[in-house]
Amino acid sequence: MAYRFALAGNPNSGKTTLFNNLTGSNAHVGNWPGVTVERKEGKCKKTKEDIHIIDLPGIYSLSPYTPEEVIARDYLSQEAPDLIINIVDATNIERNLYLTTQLIELGIPMVIALNMMDEVNKHGDVINTEGLEKELGVPVIPITAVKGQGIKELLERAVAFAKNPKPHGKTALEKTQLGDAIEGIREILKKSGYGNTLYYAIKLLEKDSIIKDKLKLDQGFSKAIDEIAAAEEGKAEEETETIIADLRYRYISEIVSKHIKKGRKQEELSF
Ligand code: GDP
Ligand code: MG
Ligand code: K
């Protein structure tokens, strides 16, 4: 059995460092079709299973605003890899989790590689990885990619998850004022035969026209979805997209305040 794993994360989170660690010199480098964004893929040399790894471009979001975002979201939603390794810079966790909340909604099995743990430990910060794992609904494995630490456990949990994929993950928007609108759109998408509907439902609520065009929905379904999105848009002064971003940040800061304790070393240094 061969598996395809995709590395996804913010720029500078350590994706290439992890990719090189996993694949050694055994990588193929090219460009994504039509753009000069580097495409790197290779075989993992550290597992007995046959695992193909692709290093996606660094992104902050799954929106359509940069070529990198479009490449990453098209690859993830259309090529459906067996698993996403979401690499998160643990020294900048609040910003990195913004992408994580979106990746979870794709419905693809995912593990979080919590990277730069050497820096976290140096600062004296404490991250409750088990708490984070429970909260997000996906495995969280601390690693230090530059030193090759934690890679073995990361691969063990990733392979186990790819072999036995289970529904996972929670959406940051579930228990918010948008929950009903998202469920309404999901119901319509289900009737249209779409599987990973959570990601699409949220994109359609954001009136993402690229996704809308790609889905090629029947006119009746399309109109029903537009009505839900328009009704939601009418309820508040801000754009739904802005509200969604705010809700994600609120969800993340709650999680971070619960599970991360900043050490004293940084403060002491600044006096
Ligand atoms: P990418 O943009 O996600 O591909 O990130 P890179 O792999 O290029 O890494 C960005 C920077 O972070 C480089 O200078 C790496 O050497 C450094 N880096 C990567 N992993 C770690 C780590 O575990 N600890 C520390 N301290 N630095 C790291
Ligand atoms: Mg890179
Ligand atoms: K509005």
Automatic annotation (TrEMBL):
Residue span(s) of domain FeoB-type G: 2-164
Places the protein is found: Cell inner membrane; Cell membrane
Residue numbers binding Mg(2+): 20, 23-24
Binding site for GTP: 9-16, 34-38, 55-58, 115-118
Function description: Probable transporter of a GTP-driven Fe(2+) uptake system.
Protein family: Belongs to the TRAFAC class TrmE-Era-EngA-EngB-Septin-like GTPase superfamily. FeoB GTPase (TC 9.A.8) family.
Stated name of the protein: Ferrous iron transport protein B
The species this protein was found in: Geosporobacter subterraneus DSM 17957
Part of the full-length chain shown: 1 to 271 of 685
